[in-house]
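**User:** Once you have settled down, spend some time on the protein underneath, comparing sequence with structure tokens, and judge whether sequence predicts the tokens.
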Amino acid sequence: MTWFLNLIILIITAGITTYLTNTWWVGIVICFILSLVIKPKASFLFGFLAIFILWFGLSFYFNYQNDNKLASAIAEILPLGGNSLLLILFSSLIGALPAGFASWSGSILRKT
């Protein structure tokens, strides 16, 4: 279990440094490369959890920084009833799914 937490911490650390300077998809590429090189046992879960935690943390931080104004406005437009936390969870889920599949693809490519 400790290897799993170490890999998630590695992705979150690499993700924070690259998300603040590059585009949103860099974390997905990091998940693919690390799964290709390191080969975690539960590769989909590894990529999914790492990016979910990263996106949730960054979204929550940015939401806190602007006093919940932007997320509440977007949650009003979407059928979320103005709930900004639900919007943050939903966007984290959307970002985590491609990362999980990229991580899974990296582990499958390593097997071949």
The radius of gyration is 15 Å. The mean pLDDT is 84. The first helix runs from residue 2 to 19.
